[in-house]
Amino acid sequence: xxxxxxxxxxxxxxxxxxxxxRAAIEARSQGMRTAIICKSLFGKAHTVMAEGGxxxxxxxxxxxxxxxxxxxxxxxxxxxxxxxRMAELHAMxxxxxxxxxxxxxxxxxxxxxxxxxxxxxxxxxYPRLAHVGDRTGLELIRTLxxxxxxxxxxxxxxxxDAESRLKVFAELTITKLTMDGERISGAxxxxxxxxxxxxxxxxxxxxxxxxxxxxFKVTSNSWEYTGDGHALAMRAGATLVNMEFVQFHPTGxxxxxxxxxxxxxxxxxxDGGVLxxxxxxxxxxxxxxxxxxxxxxxxxxxxxKWYDDHTAGRRPPELLPRDEVAxxxxxxxxxxxxxxxxxxxxxxxxxxxxxxIRKRLPSMYHQFMELAGVDITREAMEVxxxxxxxxxxxxxxxxxxxxxxxxxxxxxxVAGGMHGSNRLGxxxxxxxxxxxxxxxxxxxxxxxGLSGGNTAMDATLVQExxxxxxxxxxxxxxxxxxxxxxxLQEMMQANVGIIRTQSELDYALEKLDEFKERAGRLAIKxxxxxxxxxxxxxxxxxxxxxxxxxxxxxRDRKESRGGQTREDFPKADPEFGKINxxxxxxxxxxxxxxxxxxxxxxxxMPEELMAIFEEANK
Amino acid sequence: MSDVHMRIWRGDATGGAFEEYTMPDVEGEVVLxxxxxxxxxxxxxxxxxxxxxxxxxxxxxxxxxxxxxxMCMTRMSTLPEGETITVTPMRAFxxxxxxxxxxxxxYEQARKVPAFNPPPRPEGGYRMMQEDVERGQEFRxxxxxxxxxxxxxxxxxxxxxxxxxxxPRFFIRYAELEMHPLDxxxxxxxxxxxxxxxxxxxxxxxxxxxxxxxxxxxxxIIPLKERVVDANYDPVAWLGRKIRRRTKRTPAExxxxxx
Lengths: 618, 259
Fold this sequence. Notes:
The complex is a heterodimer of chains A (618) and B (259). Chain A is an alpha/beta fold and 618 residues long. Chain A has helices at 18-29, 67-77, 84-104, 136-159, 228-235, 267-270, 300-306, 322-334, 354-360, 362-372, 427-448, 459-470, 481-495, 502-519, 532-556, 607-617; strands at residues 4-8, 11-14, 34-38, 54-55, 118-119, 129-130, 166-170, 172-180, 183-191, 197-201, 204-207, 240-241, 246-253, 274-276, 344-347, 381-390, 393-394, 408-410, 579-584, 596-601. Chain B contains 11 helices and 7 strands. In chain B, strands 2-1-5-3-4 form a 5-stranded mixed beta sheet. In chain B, strands 6-7 form a two-stranded antiparallel sheet. The interface between A and B is large, with 68 and 66 residues.
């Protein structure tokens, strides 16, 4: 048998973004020997990309804010498809989680009286987002990273070994979760740096691997977002819920190629930026749906009054919800009125002075200047929808983050339910902290309650996993993983993207079967040491699994709601509003095994929470 | 369509050599895009780190034509047209493979920084004034690309100095904690005696390569040097400190919240 490195822990956390790090801090603080495993270097997680802030009803800027209002906003934003209990816990605990970050050393922007400043954001009734300029995600990661280092320093003082109770395994890919009967017993993977295989024996595993955006051609997500956690959890016997709900942010950069998909903040439109087609026409007025007519301006003249005085006119149509704007841009491009590179124009240059733009939107000014060579004070930006976030994910117990598999927990973007069919900006970072902590606690409680030791991974099984991982090296001729990834991204973008329809979804599922078959005969050149071709080959099965889940859910949910838009079913259907789509795969099987999808009733909200909505309607 | 010519260092800890690649020129690309196209076509095992591809994570540091740069932020159109572009791994760190280096030195240095140590948190959170957090915020913009470490001549060609030198990335961390309104740990002697602050002779190479435009030398290293001198050596400052009480704040002092 090839040489294998072995480790034994109480809890292993897969993923080192906000949720994973917060989970690890909690598990270690509860006395668990904890390992953090991540595909990138420590501190590089996709969380660093978050700009806007962390939503938490601290009431620092408007004292009327409280958890009930935050809960209400979150449920409304999610079109009531949220797990009500997750939304409740999230709203109640977010302020504590933010204040706690300051004890770890975070430096948030302040109000005049020295408290944490909070800013307005779409869908939030009051100013609610704690922020650090436009780099709040980076602050969150660095703060948690530094807290972990401080815990390691404590351990070093106590035991002489900084990694005795909390160790980071960076640049390590997990390819399997292992089971002892019905429950989790560990994980298997390899060091990307050396190609060496690693076995982790652990009774509890927390999945915090983020999202799936890398299955799409145009995305704001990093390469790590290949859906590993979703796929690992489902193959261990956990369920996925509502995977069809994918958020496409309306304004991503489309040009140059190097920056395709990178976000252009909503703030540009909030500060007066308007969308125009190739005829120079401000087209959003043509796309105001009936349900938004009452609150949306009818003419440019009326809309333009709103920016300076929100009471002087109704809202400009550029500020309709994300899904509405994204759809409209899509229609303009399809009608042949797009910009040269397949987007539309976002114009602030003709609307504000150069000085004003640089002052209000410094990061956007620099982003376009440095990455695109475009001076947004002089010319329009080219923008289009970009795959941004998945609301669906691994189904969990709200209080403990436990999945259907004993010993397996999930938190952060990989978990489903919290955001319903559409996530509000700012609710992601708070989600990471609230449910990261709860997953750490849940795992620690679970491990403490176990009787008897954990079984070590069976040597025959380990050999089987090794053989499977090395198989692509054995072929001289076969599929190129880069080509397959490229085709997958093109296909998903074209058929399971922002606007979906029956025939395209059927076609997508056929293509996915074909891709899975091709993924079975990948061929890799070179050795195992830091080989990106091989690394991609080990990510591809997960990408194919989650792509199938999204396409299946999109096919079965015959309605339009939040992050699911069906051209052939353009309205929300109250009957589908009572249904979660839940997906399963045979435990312990192959990635290519059939995925079963079934409708299950959405849990009903208790009366005391219903009252929060009735109160608001009075 | 014209071509771009790339000369990329390939190899590992035991040695290596430059390999040349020619790719069609595609408008609007950055260096990392070209590397990705080489991976997808000619060299599937060409190793490089990357992550966000938006200049926010600091993963894809390398040396382009001899200068430390983020590959995702270096537009091909800004490089000399028609000339071969040379890409090498960061020189200050041991090679793992191709453009990937072993940056664990930095994580070891991070663990040597005595942790942030605040007073207990009052109900409803700490109070701090914006002007007091702003200095630290500048240093917290750091994306840990480690290019300032790479370019710093104290360690770039002097492996032997690494044992006693934290480097610019961590000098800004020491400065940040030193200037944090709530912190009570005094690290001034440590940073001078064991972290090699004195070895820095403020050539500002680090500031020049910082992709976040942090004024590492002017705003962190020089003030840190002044505070160290203030704490330890200068009798006039010592006397001044006696009068003005410029010691590191005590836990009790840090706990006093601004009105």
